[in-house]
Amino acid sequence: MIKNVKILLLTGGKIPKLGTPQSAGYDVYPRCIVSLSEMDKQSPYLRKNLFNFKSRSDNEQINKNIIQENGQLIYNLMPNQSVVLGIGFITEMPSEMFYYLLPRSGATTVKDTLLQNAMVPIDADFRGEATAKILNIGNKPFIISKEVAIAQVVFQKRLVPQFVEINNYNEFSQTERSFHGLGHTDFKNKNLRKNNENK
């Protein structure tokens, strides 16, 4: 059964949107550039707004990367620089649900950007605005505007196992892999190929 999720759109925020009917992730859009270290004085549940795409910023470092294009203010994220963006909404999910913040495929493979806080679970009891930290790993500026999705969120079911403590390693069931890791299957397949070549 699909559960309802309460969502509060913040000023300048957009409702998450499915790109196609069968998309797994909802596209999310930047509301503003926010501070990692300061909270908003008027809305203490939000991070401080540094640039809202409507007027220039008081922050000198951010202001120098703001340009106007087609009557709109946009942000030029320079190579090797990162920025933190508020995604524009707050949710209340059922306790058995959470969502992941994930990169969009085009932003990663075409635009040479990296979502630095990807795969961070946003829990059901979180009552703030999630943020996306974008790093430009390319060699030219990456344009950020309110009209272009910066990430996607994928809702998941939360599993909460009960731990059963055991006293001895031998109480684990035996498997072919056993304790081998760190490329064990690659090493094993390489040995199999070598043995076949020697036959």
Commentary on this structure:
There is one protein chain. The chain is mainly beta and 199 residues long. It folds into two domains: 6-157, Deoxyuridine 5'-Triphosphate Nucleotidohydrolase, Chain A; 169-198. The protein is 12% helix and 34% strand. It is built from three helices and 15 strands. The chain has helices spanning 60-63, 105-109, 184-198; strands spanning 6-9, 17-18, 26-28, 32-39, 47-51, 66-69, 72-77, 82-86, 89-92, 97-102, 113-115, 121-122, 131-136, 142-144, 151-157. The strands form four sheets. Strands 2-3-15-10-12 form a five-stranded antiparallel sheet, with no helix packed on it. Strands 5-4-8-13-11 form a five-stranded antiparallel sheet. A hairpin with a 7-residue loop joins β4 (32-39) and β5 (47-51). The N and C termini lie far apart (56 Å). 21% of the residues are buried.
Give the helices and strands, then pairings.
Layout: E1 6-9, E2 17-18, E3 26-28, E4 32-39, E5 47-51, H1 60-63, E6 66-69, E7 72-77, E8 82-86, E9 89-92, E10 97-102, H2 105-109, E11 113-115, E12 121-122, E13 131-136, E14 142-144, E15 151-157, H3 184-198
Antiparallel strand pairs: 1-9, 2-3, 3-15, 4-5, 4-8, 6-7, 7-14, 8-13, 10-12, 10-15, 11-13
CATH topology annotation of the largest domain:
Deoxyuridine 5'-Triphosphate Nucleotidohydrolase, Chain A
SS-derived structural category: mainly beta
Shape: globular
Instruction: Give the terminus-to-terminus CA distance.
Output: 56 Å
Element order, helices and strands?
EEEEEHEEEEEHEEEEEH
Oligomeric category = single chain
Number of helical elements: 3
DSSP strand content = 25-35%
Sequence stretches where pLDDT stays below 50 over 5 or more residues: none
Q: Can you say what the CATH homologous superfamily of the largest domain is?
A: Deoxyuridine triphosphatase (dUTPase)
Helix residue percentage: 10-25%
Largest sheet features: 5 strands, antiparallel
CATH C-level class of the largest domain is Mainly Beta
Over the alpha carbons, how many angstroms does the gyration radius reach?
Answer: 22 Å
CATH architecture of the largest domain: Distorted Sandwich
- Kindly report the average pLDDT value: 91
Q: How many β-strand runs?
A: 15
